[in-house]
Automatic annotation (TrEMBL):
Its main location: membrane. GO terms for cellular component: cytoplasm; membrane. Keywords: Membrane, Repeat, Transmembrane, Transmembrane helix, Transport. InterPro entries: AQP11/12_channel, Aquaporin-like, Aquaporin_11/12, Aquaporin_12, MIP. It comes from Gopherus agassizii (Agassiz's desert tortoise). The lineage of its organism: Eukaryota, Metazoa, Chordata, Craniata, Vertebrata. This is Aquaporin. It is a multi-pass membrane protein. Belongs to the MIP/aquaporin (TC 1.A.8) family. AQP11/AQP12 subfamily.
Length: 288
């Protein structure tokens, strides 16, 4: 129980420190710098939080839900996920330069989070951390299934996550955050035994890419190709096109902006046919 309390205290401390730095940065830095750099970096630090505790799946899932809940409410749209940043680029909500900066900062945040967590484990405040230090020397792969099934699992997780995110993208954060937290936690519970259910390339890179059991190419296929494919499929299904690549809608016909009202004939108007088209003539009385 003491170990759990220490781990939760670490998690809450990271959340509190990141929130303070975020608020200060938002006031002191230019808006573009804050949006593109600081909030992505800080969210990446928070993203690693639950994995830094070194405790069981039930607590991991609980903290995962709480983390996404806090992120959704407070982090001003930061994603800490390359697939979300690329999705914003593909729907033309973000420029190429802004997207490149986000991706770069996400990797910087990933490395910073890894260093922070490793340093925290080195204190060995609990037995969990001692075990984590031993496991870090020779960790095993999170892929516990075949390569193609792993790609499929990560792709399906990413597909459902992005589909729900697109559906609620314009909803108020108080409604959107719990929905995303539930879908992420549910997917992690279902798919976790197969691949870890990361569906976040940066998070997967820091957690499992250095572990034995699979080569780098296999990790990239499962944790990069799978989520990216799922994101593209969700985007295509949701709106029928990918604006950055092509404008033609493959699935849905555009709805007319105007409606033609249906009503009774107006007295004094006479409809006549001509060249297959209806014409309206006004009947007037001659001057007496």
């Amino acid at each position: 129980m003491a170990g759990l309390n220490v781990s939760i205290a670490f998690f809450l401390s990271v959340v509190a420190i990141c929130e303070v730095i975020r608020q200060v940065s938002k006031r002191l830095l230019p808006l573009g710098v804050y949006r593109g750099l600081v909030r992505e970096l800080l969210r990446m630090l928070m993203e690693i939080g639950p994995w830094g505790g070194g405790f069981g799946p039930d607590v991991i899932l609980t903290l995962l839900f709480i983390t996404y809940l806090i992120h959704g409410v407070s982090f001003d749209g930061a994603s800490a996920n390359p697939t979300i940043s690329l999705q914003e680029f593909l729907v033309m909500d973000s420029s190429f330069v802004a997207t490149a900066v986000k991706l770069l900062v996400q990797f910087v945040g990933m490395e910073a989070a890894g260093i922070l967590t490793t340093h925290y484990w080195s204190w060995e405040l609990t037995d969990f951390h001692l075990i984590q230090n031993l496991m870090a020397l020779d960790c095993s792969s999170s892929i516990h299934t075949s390569l193609y099934h792993g790609i499929f699992v990560e792709g399906v997780c990413s597909f459902f996550f992005h589909l729900v995110a697109l559906k609620f993208q314009h909803s108020h954060p108080l409604y959107r955050a719990p929905v995303l937290a539930v879908i992420v936690t549910t997917l992690a519970y279902i798919a976790g035994p197969f691949t870890g259910a990361f569906f976040n390339p940066t998070l997967a890179s820091i957690i499992t890419f250095d572990c034995s059991g699979n080569i780098l190419q296999e990790y990239v296929q499962v944790y990069w190709l799978g989520p990216l494919t799922g994101m593209l499929a969700a985007l295509l299904l949701y709106q029928g096109n990918i604006p950055r690549l092509f404008q033609k809608n493959l699935f849905y016909s555009p709805k007319s902006k105007y409606r033609t009202p249906k009503g009774k004939a107006v007295p004094g108007l006479k409809q006549t046919g001509g060249n297959g088209e209806g014409q309206l003539q006004l009947r007037t009385k001659p001057w007496s």
